[in-house]
Amino acid sequence: MDMAAAAPLISFMLAMLLIVSTGTAWFAALHPRFIGRFIQGNEDSNETDAGLYLSIRLGGMALGLIGVFLLFLGDVFA
What is the 3 state secondary structure string of the chain? Predict the structure, then answer.
């Protein structure tokens, strides 16, 4: 019987994790050069190829769309 009281808290924490993850994915999709510099560290960013930024952007967009879909899916079944 104690699990029923903890269920809304766990649900809220998972929803916040999904919101933060979705926001981070959209930030990566909008700012791939910043994320690329963050990943590479102190390396010169002029030597990086465009494929890295494209893969960061596409990955961010894909994960962002999945996160938005999951957020809307939670509203449908609530």
Answer: CCHHHHHHHHHHHHHHHHHHHHHHHHHHHHCHHHHHHHHHCCCCHHHCCHHHHHHHHHHHHHHHHHHHHHHHHHHHHC
Q: How many domains does the chain have?
A: 1
Total-model pTM: 0.78
Quick check: is 57 in a domain?
Answer: yes
Is position 23 within any domain? no
Q: Is residue 31 part of a domain?
A: no
Give the model's confidence band at 30: pLDDT under 50 very low, under 70 low, under 90 confident, else very high: very high
